[in-house]
Write a structure and sequence with these properties.
The complex is a heterotrimer of chains A (about 350), B (about 250) and C (about 290). Chain A is mainly alpha-helical and about 350 residues long. Chain A has two domains: about 30-315, ABC transporter involved in vitamin B12 uptake, BtuC (Orthogonal Bundle), CATH 1.10.3470; about 320-345. Helix content of chain A is about 75%, strand content about 0%. In chain A, α2 crosses α12, α7 crosses α8 and α12 crosses α13. In chain B, the strands form two sheets. In chain B, strands 6-7-8-3-9-10 form a six-stranded mixed sheet, with helices on both faces. Chain B has a four-stranded antiparallel sheet with strand order 2-1-4-5, covered by helices on one side. Chain C is mainly α and about 290 residues long. Chain C has one domain (about 25-225). Chain C is about 70% helix and about 5% strand. Chain C has a two-stranded antiparallel ribbon with strand order 1-2. Chain C starts with a helix and ends in a 13-residue tail after the last helix. The chains are: A mainly alpha (about 350), B alpha/beta (about 250), C mainly alpha (about 290). The interface between A and C is large, with 44 and 50 residues.
């Protein structure tokens, strides 16, 4: 195992990147650009959380808007009606998301194929309808507004978007750290094996069902937390926008276009994709044209570059070929001269 | 030819199969199969194509649920509650006819991930390196497993199973597609595995493998046990020969 | 009680449309082992093609069936070749992503080509119904149901009685062996897909007397047939049929007893319950191979 180098080039680059990001709001003038950044950061977090089950787990979920909704609605319902701070209501959203993720996972993770994806679509739709229906609690299709009564960190209401920028940045950094630790954890390793070959993994003792369920639960609760913050940032949530299929697709596409199953992928995906949508909707109109982009990009990436944009930055694994060739040559030498101890790698 | 050391606890069978039967769509794939594997043995399971060998392995490993009969492994009765992963944790390992590497991972990671199940990170690392040496895969440890040759993939399959600390390995046609020198190396590898006390159920078509490595052989034909005995005995038995020539040739 | 039986009838008939789409999805799945998430989008395009042909010819929807079918065949061929064929052999989740992407693309393409005003394809029988006792059976729904039966029968004959049908069955069992037997599996895939989406498009045609021709009409038809197919047992035509009818009935009964909005929620609950208890669906034989 390679030793962890604290001062490696990669780590220095990351610190510089974070420093740059921290400084941007002081340089950039105008709330509009800041708000684009905030959207990018939030979708980077959302895509990263999605990635846990969708990328590392290779189970395509189309219901993450539902977890955003659960987080956002828990936040709004409790703060508007009872004045409870979003930070205090987050655990409730997390719990509800956890329960739903468990139900869906229990139903579908013992099966292979598209069952899970279908169930997620059904779930998100049903939640949207349920929220519209139980309008005494949720104000139904009209949605809920957060009224601004002055800047307050505990209420997550601010005069402009700059505080949200920093909150979103910190959130993203936290999520990235958590995901990184997850990939290094035992469960993270098992998930990789399942993704590689589920049959083989099971025959070697890995309980695929449990591992996938855990990944989905984690993904759901993180998404719920981001959803709570996202809701406060938007100051307005409604079933059609917050629990729509569009949002689920957007989250998935951010991760897929950027690089499914990688840490940098969803971040790159968000910073490319979100501004792209902004530009497209200015040019092509709000509906139709820009939404079409999601579908088009998804198809193009899957056909032409399934590993996502991130793979453009990775050096092609020449290393594998070199290792393979060297090993082959050593083998041939060994065989040609009878059995001999071989120490070269 | 090596004489394999046997560590046999008197009267202890690692695997007992009693009256095992399964049908698919009305066709009896395996009927009333009875056999046992003694601890430390290398038992050959041979028979023409379609005789039920792989089906039997699938029933023991938990992929299929038999319609009738009992499987007792290391004293445990196996029923449908013991799913495939749980049986692997009990100590049953099996290879697949077509190797199934975790193609997204390196050779090292393939083995390491499995070793993690019963070990700390440090221990798993040590065990993985041990296994890499034993299976002669050490030069390839950082290579993407999807790029391995067929022979190396089969060895990696076995290496991964070793990381589960198995008591029984069922090898499903491991020799298929190997050239003679690769086969000789595989014999040695398998003997090494057996020397660690691991019992082996060896499904094979390649008769040289059977005589080189196995201490006993049972023959299946059309889902039923045809004959049982020492490899040389079995292979020269007229009934067995007839079953092979009468049945489908490979 | 009357409401219950009437909603039972309505649900059965509505389920016919779900079943039609579901059978289309099943054929695609059976032959190619991919779930076509874009079926609902093709239905919407079917509605729009019907509208366009109506504008051109003035004929009513039912007379336009041959024209719309042909249009769907061409449309299906083009979209298949461009988007799905390239990823057919990539295992895993590629098809989920592509067909969902396609679904989104097609739905939104409509909004690009046509403005959002809802249109209608006039039908003289729109409000007609058959009276049986105190229950009424909407004529357009009855015709849709009958058409579905005809098409399902046609597919059954195709699969079991024709050489091509047997080729399709062989390909669905094992594409490798089918190829060795000389079957052109590429062509089989293409045709299976075309059949699948033509069914979806014709379903769109059949509902034009009942729904406005607009992009959002298709949304419910995107999710419900998928659930119906899984409920009935993925890969099983009989399962898709019964799944569709069952889902239609549940939606109608829940809608009439509780609230029209909750219909889809009822379906989802049913879906989750069935998938949990009988994971392979009511009639499924399971797709698991060792």
């Amino acid at each position: 195992m390679r030793k962890y180098k604290l001062l490696s080039i990669k780590n220095i680059a990351l610190v510089v990147l974070v420093a740059v990001m921290a400084v941007i709001p002081l340089i950039v003038k105008g709330n509009y650009i800041i708000s684009i950044f905030v959207s990018c950061l939030i979708f980077a977090s959302l895509g990263s959380a999605w990635n846990i089950i969708g990328g590392y787990g290779a189970q395509i979920s189309w219901c993450h808007s539902a977890f955003v909704t659960i987080g956002a609605y828990s936040n709004f319902i409790l703060s508007v009606n009872f004045g409870i701070s979003p930070f205090l209501s987050m655990p409730i959203g997390m719990l509800i998301s956890f329960i739903f993720a468990t139900i869906i996972g229990h139903g579908t993770f013992k099966l292979r194929g598209a069952y899970f994806s279908i169930a997620t679509i059904a779930f998100a739709e049903s939640l949207r309808i349920a929220i519209q229906y139980f309008d005494k609690l949720t104000k139904g299709a009209a949605g809920i507004y957060v009224t601004y009564t002055g800047s307050s960190f505990s209420k997550l209401t601010f005069k402009n978007d700059i505080p949200f920028y920093y909150i979103a940045l910190v959130l993203l950094i936290l999520i990235v750290i958590i995901i990184y630790r997850f990939t290094k954890s035992k469960t993270g390793h098992y998930l990789g094996a399942i993704k590689g070959n589920e049959d083989a993994a099971e025959s070697l003792g890995i309980e695929a069902f449990k591992v996938k369920l855990t990944a989905f639960q984690l993904s759901a609760i993180f998404t719920s937390v981001i959803g709570a913050i996202y809701g406060s940032y938007l100051t307005y949530i409604a079933p059609s926008s917050t629990c729509g299929f569009d949002l689920s697709i957007k989250i998935g596409v951010v991760a897929i276009v950027g690089g499914i199953g990688t840490i940098a992928g969803p971040i790159i995906g968000a910073f490319i994709f979100i501004p792209l949508i902004e530009i497209a909707s200015k040019l092509l109109g709000q509906i139709g044209g820009s939404q079409m982009l999601y579908g088009l990009l998804l198809i193009i990436i899957v056909i032409f570059r399934p590993e996502g944009v991130v793979s453009l930055f990775k050096r092609k694994s020449k290393k594998d070929d070199v290792v393979g060739e060297t090993a082959k040559i050593n083998e041939e030498t060994k065989n040609g001269q009878g059995r001999k101890e071989n120490k070269n790698g | 030819m090596d004489r394999v050391e046997r560590r046999i606890k008197m009267g202890k069978n690692i695997l007992e199969v009693k009256d095992l039967s399964i049908s698919f769509a009305g066709i009896k794939a395996v009927q009333n199969l009875n056999f046992h594997l003694e601890q430390g043995e290398v038992l050959a399971l041979i028979g023409p194509n379609g005789s039920g060998k792989s089906t039997t392995v699938n029933m023991i490993s938990g992929v299929y649920t038999p319609n009738k009969g009992d499987i007792v492994f290391d004293g445990h009765h196996l029923n449908s509650k013991q799913t495939v992963p749980l049986r692997a944790k009990l100590g049953i390992g099996r290879t697949f006819q077509t190797p199934k590497p975790f193609a997204n991972l390196s050779v090292y990671e393939n083995i390491f991930t499995i070793a993690l199940q019963k070990n700390s990170y440090a221990n798993a690392d040590k065990i993985t390196n041990d296994i890499l040496d034993m299976s002669k895969l050490a030069p390839f440890k950082d290579m993407n497993s999807g790029k391995l040759s067929i022979e190396k993939r089969k060895w990696m399959d076995l290496a991964r199973i070793l990381a589960t600390e198995p008591k029984l390995i069922m090898m499903d046609e491991v020799m298929a597609g190997l050239n003679p020198s690769e086969m000789e190396e595989s014999f040695e590898f398998i003997r090494n595995i057996n020397r660690r006390g691991i019992s082996i159920l060896f499904i094979e078509h390649v008769m040289k493998a059977v005589t080189s490595v196995c201490t006993r052989a049972i023959v299946l034909n059309q889902g039923q046990l045809l004959f049982e005995g020492e490899p040389k005995e079995v292979l020269s038995n007229p009934l067995v020969i007839k079953a092979y020539i009468g049945g489908s040739e490979k | 009680m009357w409401i219950f039986i009437q909603s039972l009838i309505n649900g059965l008939l509505a389920g016919g449309v779900y079943a039609l789409i579901g059978v289309g999805i099943t054929i695609v799945f059976g032959v190619m082992k991919i779930v076509n998430f874009a079926a609902g989008a093709y239905l919407v395009w079917g509605m729009y093609f019907t509208y366009l042909w109506y504008q051109v010819t003035g004929l009513n929807a039912y007379l336009l069936i041959p024209l719309v079918a042909m249009t769907m065949i061409i449309f299906g061929f083009a979209t298949f070749k461009l988007t799905i064929k390239p990823v057919l052999n990539t295992g895993g989740t590629a098809f989920i992503l592509v067909t969902v992407g396609l679904s989104f693309l097609l739905q939104n393409l409509i909004e690009v080509f046509f403005d959002p005003t809802p249109r209608t394809v006039p039908s003289s029988i729109k409000l007609s119904s058959l009276q049986i006792g105190s229950f009424s059976i909407g004529l357009p729904r009855l015709i849709a149901f009958a058409a579905m039966l005809v098409l399902v029968l046609f597919v059954n004959l195709l699969l079991n009685k024709t050489l091509f049908g047997r080729a399709m069955k062989a390909t669905s069992e094992s594409s490798v062996i089918a190829r060795m037997l000389g079957i052109n599996t590429d062509r089989t895939y293409t045709i299976a897909f075309i059949i699948g989406i033509t069914f979806a498009g014709l379903a769109g045609l059949l509902i034009t007397p009942l729904y406005y021709v607009t992009a959002t009409s298709g949304k419910i038809f995107s999710t419900v047939p998928l659930m119906a197919v899984v409920l009935g047992g993925l890969g099983n035509i009989k399962g898709a049929l019964i799944g569709g009818l069952l889902v239609g009935v549940v939606e109608a009964v829940v809608g009439s007893q509780l609230s029209p909005d909750l219909g889809p929620v009822g379906i989802t609950l049913l879906f989750l319950v069935v998938v949990y208890l009988k994971p392979k669906g009511l009639f499924g034989k399971g797709e698991r191979t060792a």
